[in-house]
Automatic annotation (TrEMBL):
Protein name listed in UniProt: RINT1 protein
Superkingdom of this protein's organism: Eukaryota
Swiss-Prot/TrEMBL GO biological process terms: endoplasmic reticulum to Golgi vesicle-mediated transport; regulation of ER to Golgi vesicle-mediated transport; retrograde vesicle-mediated transport, Golgi to endoplasmic reticulum
GO cellular component: Dsl1/NZR complex
């Protein structure tokens, strides 16, 4: 239940040894005419240990939503730091290969959808759902975006951020399919609320729904260039 313990430990080992590997070991390899990068080879070996640990742990966590979700969150944070801070290469083994394996991946998709739907329930039932966060700042709030629409688009963006480093396009497309389902679900929810408000088509909530639809359509159009 604490994958961050070993993930953080590995990041500390990589960080603490980098100067020694660069200053002492790499010159020896270079002198011998080797093409091996000492720092990357050290990182790769430690990541292989993590892959073994994950392969053993994941089957035990598959049906505990809380622990499984926590594991995925921690692995994604680990991967981000491994690449951005320690210069790890995408061509080397990574935790995303474990998360891409069929049983694990399908569970990840299921849990991601479950929590996204819960988030949508709470954002639409919130008292502030149809109020703009920036209603008092005229130059920021040209589109009069209600809070639920902004929160929903942030949710989609966060999901993209979580799956964008998956190693295969087919897995990314499955996540895109989930996002399309969520957009359609949100559309249905907006339609239901709109029907309740149809008698007051100039009312506050009805206008807020139209603003939400306009905002979502605009943002999706902006994302169209994002492969």
């Amino acid at each position: 239940n604490k994958p961050e313990w070993y993930l953080t430990q590995v990041l500390m080992w990589i960080g603490n040894h980098s100067k020694f590997l660069d200053d002492k070991i790499q010159p020896i390899l270079d002198k011998a005419g080797s093409s091996v990068n000492a720092g990357l080879e050290f990182s790769r070996a430690l990541v292989m240990l993590i892959l073994e640990k994950l392969a053993a742990d994941i089957p035990c966590l598959l049906y505990d939503d809380t622990l499984f979700c926590h594991l995925v969150d921690e692995v994604l944070l680990f991967e981000r730091e491994l690449y951005s801070v320690h210069g790890y290469l995408s061509s080397l083994p990574s935790c995303m290969h474990i998360l891409s394996e069929e049983s694990c991946f399908q569970r990840w998709l299921t849990v991601e959808k479950k929590f996204a739907l819960q988030k949508m329930d709470s954002m639409l039932s919130s008292e502030a759902a149809w109020i703009s966060q920036y209603k008092d700042i005229t130059d920021v709030d040209e589109m009069k975006v209600p809070d639920c629409a902004e929160t929903f688009m942030t949710l989609l963006l966060v999901i993209t951020d979580r799956y964008k480093n998956l190693p295969t396009a087919s897995r990314k497309l499955q996540f895109l399919g989930l996002q399309k389902e969520l957009v359609d679900d949100f559309r249905i929810r907006l339609t239901q609320v709109m029907k309740e408000e149809s008698r007051a088509s100039l009312g506050f909530r009805y206008c807020a729904i139209l603003n939400a639809v306009n905002y979502i359509a605009t943002v999706l159009a902006d994302w169209a260039d994002n492969v």
